[in-house]
């Protein structure tokens, strides 16, 4: 097996021994998963993408200014989890129109998504200097301190909400550690709102979110030689207003055994047993400020859409 398949096999071996059984949402994003997520972003129930688009359209010049303090010189705009870059293109156009000296370094784990992004940028923004990085976040984070000049790191689309609270703090500390005084972070946070709207965004009427979740089993069948029968699994999600957490699961609809060739193991599943696949936490603005302070960051600027559904928050290292 290739290294990536070895890592996936190790993750599955560990995750399916836990109680409850757990798999990471980072493995959603093979090429098929990335295509399905593009469809999710266009669903009527899925408000976060539209909300963040509206923020970039309305506040583009102010966001660009906040990311590149006056006198900071040339900088690298690094985007973790770039996807198709649709929202980021609005910011890239602002920077190009202002004759800002910068390079754009999109990071994505999906080679297919990266190829599509680089080709699209070449057509739409030919003056843009692009340095693509096909990598996971952990590897990309280790490379940030090696880049010359100042940098602005983007982490959009409420991806920060996918981390467990302890992992979130650890991730943000790693982002904060290499920041120079003129460096900036821009992180998208989905805000708490009507619980029914939040739940619908993760369990749409067309079933695209269900297909996205179930695609994880298809990936295990293809890459690890597993024999999951998708007709015996269902997507389920819930939302708790108490802690702001959406939790997504794959549910076994019957007692069954699944053989995973790469592990040389057969896993037993009881009827209605779950595999926990994703968390998606929602935040309040005071929670965001408190989180920033806890990990050595400060809020420089905060931009929200008109409905208050979403916030893009610019952060910097705390003053010495």
Task: Give an overview in words.
With 320 residues, the chain is α/β, with parallel strands linked by helices. 39% of the residues lie in helices and 25% in strands. The chain has ten helices and 13 strands. The strands form three sheets. It has a seven-stranded mixed β-sheet. Strand 2, helix 4 and strand 3 form a beta-alpha-beta unit. The longest helix has 21 residues. The relative contact order is 0.17.
* Low-confidence blocks of residues: none
H/E series: HEHHEHEHEHEHEHHEEEEEHEE
The biggest sheet, with number of strands, parallel, antiparallel or mixed sense and barrel status, is:
7 strands, mixed
How many runs of DSSP E, i.e. beta strands? 13
Radius of gyration: 20 Å
- Class per helix and strand makeup: alpha/beta
Give the DSSP E fraction (strand runs of 2 or more residues).
Answer: 25-35%
By CATH, the architecture of the largest domain is named: 3-Layer(aba) Sandwich
Organism: Hymenobacter arizonensis (Siccationidurans arizonensis)
InterPro entries: EgtD, EgtD_Methyltrsf_superfamily, MeTrfase_dom, MeTrfase_EgtD-like, SAM-dependent_MTases_sf
Keywords: Methyltransferase, Transferase
Domain Histidine-specific methyltransferase SAM-dependent: 9-315
